[in-house]
Amino acid sequence: MALQMAMKNATSISGVITKIIENESINNIIFDASNIKFCVDPCNSKEPELYQFKPYDGKKYLKINYPINNNSSLIIKNYRICKCCNDRYFEFCDEECIDKLIEDGKNICKKLNI
């Protein structure tokens, strides 16, 4: 409930929060980044996308999932990402650095004004 109220008062940066899945154990935020022209991951850059963003063919990845606490995730759909953030995400996943993924998820929420 608190998450849903916070979402009503937030303004995202040119993205669309498609839905909030809320039940007793899970509160997920699904964010459609189709209109975002910068890296949606935790780097500080908000520069418009150039050819260095992944995927390099100019298309978009379907989704990426960041935990934001033990019961919630930020799911970003239709996104592009800089190489540094992409490498960071997969390194944290491979090494099971859940605390670092949670920290990145919270930073992304701040970056995107979610």
Can you characterise this structure?
The protein has 114 residues and is of the alpha+beta class. The protein has one domain. The protein is 30% helix and 25% strand. The protein has three helices and four strands. It has a four-stranded mixed beta sheet with strand order 1-2-4-3, with helices on one face. Strand 1 and strand 2 form a beta hairpin. It is globular, with a radius of gyration of 14 Å.
Fold blueprint:
Layout: H1 2-9, E1 16-22, E2 27-32, E3 61-67, E4 72-79, H2 83-94, H3 98-111
Parallel strand pairs: 2-4
Antiparallel strand pairs: 1-2, 3-4
Q: What is the CA–CA distance across the termini?
A: 15 Å
In what range is the share of β-strand residues? 15-25%
Shape: globular
Number of domains: 1
In the predicted model, the low-confidence regions spanning at least 5 consecutive residues are: 1-25
Number of strands: 4
How would you describe this structure in keywords?
alpha+beta; 4-stranded mixed sheet; 3 helices; 30% helix
Short note summarizing the structure:
The protein has 114 residues and is an alpha+beta fold. It has helices at residues 2-9, 83-94, 98-111; strands spanning 16-22, 27-32, 61-67, 72-79.
